Amino acid sequence: MTRHFRSWIMAAASVAAMASASPAFAQDVTEISVQRFFGACDADFGTNTDVSKAVGECGIITSLINKFNADNPDIKATVTTVEWPGYDQLTAQFAAGDPPDIVTVHESALSDYQSKGLLLPLDELLATVGISPDSFTDAGRGGVTKEDKIYALPIDSWTMLYHINLGLFKQAGLLNADGTPILPTSVDELLAQAEQFKQKTGKPYFVQNLANETALFTRNLYTYLFQQDSDFFADPTKVKLNTPEAKKVFELYKAIFDKDYTTKNMDYGAAIQAFLAGEGGVQLNGTWVVGDYNASAATAGTALNSGGYAVYPYPQLFGGKKAQYADGHTWAVSNKDDRTPEQLAAIGKFLKFFADNDFEWSRTGHLPAFKAVLDSDAFKALPHRDTLAPIATLGTPLPSAVQRQFAIQDIIGEEMGAAVTGQKEVDAALTDAESRINELLANL
């Protein structure tokens, strides 16, 4: 335990003793600032403290923080909600010397802040509230460990999925005898099934958000590079993208676009609404919408209710290893010199609360970050977890030493989008993506 940290803990213990001896002092409230993404939903969940009644990322995280404040009247966690992913704002806050105490950070973005000394190592603080990194899943622990220290509390692992309208799959003749969807096992099978789907239903096989989009393109590319055993970030300071493996992925999604096997000109919100309205067979979206889509499927009169909803990992289209891109959400703590012992203790309570409620968060569709929850009967009993279980071993992140992963995501998405929509030749897009990323990494 460092001397500075020990002084905090001792001071916090002294404060606690004074509080117990003085009723007036005990009513003092310790304020901590919490900054998060996951959207705003105050109209539905702004005052809700019954987490079991919450649905979706926004509803569950809003209700969890409400309950934390209700359960800890001596602490006030003041929440700021930012537009996803919020890193431009967070970077500006650090530059101004006024970052939030606790902030949602993707595992893929932790290195950007940790490498500059902006995040507090949490090993000692987590130990004081009884959280051991041994309790994290392998994915969770790997995602928050930097230079042999823990720099955030992992709360989930997430990935992209095939969200499937079973009614349209039945209409297209793409259901097995047991009612499960027939998924492709190669690029040729995918294109053939997409053509069959289009002919039988008059609708596109895929519902994709391709307007003003970078993340979807990039995550698709990573998944199918992993499946081809492409070690494109063998050197975390330099990418190798102008390869036959990457060209195959670009050409696959260009064929899907050119043959009208996908929706077009839809942003993220429009794609969700289109899928819920039954305008396509498969939406490419993440673990975070499983809870919402399952709720829609349970509601009479909806497109998913009429035929059914299923969700699966991306199919294995290439002959390499079974893998798909994965990331995770975390709570990180800013490294502040002026933080009081009371605030540090309050932060520890907040992290412990979220660790204790990881099952509630897993109802979103994300995989738990704690082994005990992942192995629990309660988690396994949630809808679709049997088909999602393989993600625990399939999920593959970029190497943790790769910095500026969100900026890289934007570059790849821009170049892949240009190639898919015909604005740029595939070879030119691959060349430009590689050179732009390497220029970015060379100037860190």
UniProtKB/TrEMBL annotation:
<keyword id="KW-0813">Transport</keyword>
<protein>
    <submittedName>
        <fullName>Multiple sugar transport system substrate-binding protein</fullName>
    </submittedName>
</protein>
<dbReference type="InterPro" id="IPR050490">
    <property type="entry name" value="Bact_solute-bd_prot1"/>
</dbReference>
<comment type="similarity">
    <text>Belongs to the bacterial solute-binding protein 1 family.</text>
</comment>
<keyword id="KW-0732">Signal</keyword>
<dbReference type="Pfam" id="PF01547">
    <property type="entry name" value="SBP_bac_1"/>
</dbReference>
<feature type="signal peptide">
    <location>
        <begin position="1"/>
        <end position="26"/>
    </location>
</feature>
<keyword id="KW-0574">Periplasm</keyword>
<keyword id="KW-0762">Sugar transport</keyword>
<dbReference type="InterPro" id="IPR006059">
    <property type="entry name" value="SBP"/>
</dbReference>
